[in-house]
Amino acid sequence: MILDSLENTGRFETLHPLFRQAFDYFRSMNLSKMEDGDYTFGEHDEMRLTISSFKGKNKSDAIIETHRKYLDIQIPLIGIEKIGWKPLDQLAETTVDYDEKKDIAFYVDRPTAFTKIYPGQFAIYFPEDGHAPGIGQGFIRKAIVKIPIEVVIEVVKDR
């Protein structure tokens, strides 16, 4: 997991070209005017932006999830979101087995750490990062950028 300020995306954009594309797309959009939903972008529409609005939930109601095909870049737009975390190799039992089409599995386990993410910040969750999003009070609006792992691996191998 990576947590930082949107002002510092340049540090991560140099690690991989898809991070630069993702953050450039995020900065170029007027997210306050966008409706909740899914938007594809990238050279081959390989990346996805999801805008989501919801009422924050209690820690006890947050469920750990993991993904195999995508990295998540979580960016709060309105409200403070707390996201629970526990490494994949310590997750013991699923409540919903991995769904390949939806690229998600859910777990019984409870997070071992929590991070508050404020508007103006972002967090990147890798496949080895179990994360329990949506914790907070009141109205939360966020953007989630999904970057496919296969593309990340292919570009890194070509370096």
- The sequence of SSEs as H and E is EHHEEEEEEEEEEEH
Q: Largest beta sheet, briefly?
A: 6 strands, antiparallel
Low-confidence parts: none
Strand order of the largest sheet: 1-10-5-12-3-2
In helices, the fraction of residues equals: 10-25%
Oligomer: single chain
Helix-strand category: alpha+beta
Overall residue-averaged pLDDT value: 92
Structural Rg = 15 Å
Overall 3D form: globular
Terminal-residue CA separation? 23 Å
Number of strands: 12
What do you see in this structure?
- The protein has helices spanning 9-13, 17-28, 149-158, and strands at residues 2-5, 37-41, 47-55, 64-66, 70-78, 81-87, 94-99, 104-107, 113-117, 121-125, 129-135, 139-148.
- The protein is of the alpha+beta class.
- The model has no long low-confidence stretch (mean pLDDT 92).
How would the blueprint of this fold be written?
Layout: E1 2-5, H1 9-13, H2 17-28, E2 37-41, E3 47-55, E4 64-66, E5 70-78, E6 81-87, E7 94-99, E8 104-107, E9 113-117, E10 121-125, E11 129-135, E12 139-148, H3 149-158
Antiparallel strand pairs: 1-10, 2-3, 3-12, 4-8, 5-10, 5-12, 6-9, 6-11, 7-8
